[in-house]
């Protein structure tokens, strides 16, 4: 352990201090740009409080702190819905909805979360959609199909760089929140479903 700590100073004490400054800079919320999809970064962009950068929706919510609290409340409430539903189902095996919800949470909660971390999404998304069954109620199944369309649309938006998207779609935080809220709604209001035939065949 002492050896590992000593390695921090292998390039000299000045480099060690430089590393601490960089870490402080990133964790203090100053690393704000459209490719940082954390809640903190999005709130500051939305409030237009980033020097030299004009928010796409500047003036909609002028207080960055209020934006953070609002988005955080939506995210945590949605996650809690998925978590409680997973506990109540009490099924063995991997819960795709909970895995996807945890992945979204891991993407939006840190103060620094650049777009390259979106590579965490495809696996949980595929597992979740692969576990979707068929609802015996046609009306409820139609609503589920609509929600799956919304979910897929939001996810597809995260696959493109902000360079190729409109300014108001540049930051991926809104799409990640839509994904989480949609999963929460589908988890909360979905009835008993017959298992996915592909999953059964593979298992």
C-alpha Rg (nearest Å): 20 Å
Helical percent range? Answer: 55-70%
Report the total helices: 9
Order of helices and strands: HHHHHHHHH
Structural class: mainly alpha
> Rough shape?
globular
Task: Detail the poorly predicted runs.
Answer: 50-60, 197-203
- How many separate domains? 2
Distance between the amino and carboxyl termini = 44 Å
Number of strands: 0
Percent in strands: under 5%
Query: Mean pLDDT, as a whole number?
Result: 80
Described by strand count, sense and barrel closure, the largest sheet is: none
Structure commentary:
- This protein is mainly α.
- It has helices at about 1-5, 15-25, 40-45, 65-90, 95-110, 120-130, 140-155, 175-190, 195-200.
- α5 (about 95-110) packs antiparallel against α8 and α7 packs antiparallel against α8.
- Residues about 50-60 and about 195-203 have low confidence and may be disordered.
Would you kindly provide a brief summary of this structure?
The protein is mainly alpha-helical and 203 residues long. Helices cover 59% and strands 0% of the residues.
Label this structure with key terms.
203 residues, mainly alpha
Task: Set out the fold topology.
Blueprint: H1 2-6, H2 13-27, H3 39-47, H4 64-89, H5 96-108, H6 122-130, H7 138-157, H8 173-189, H9 197-202
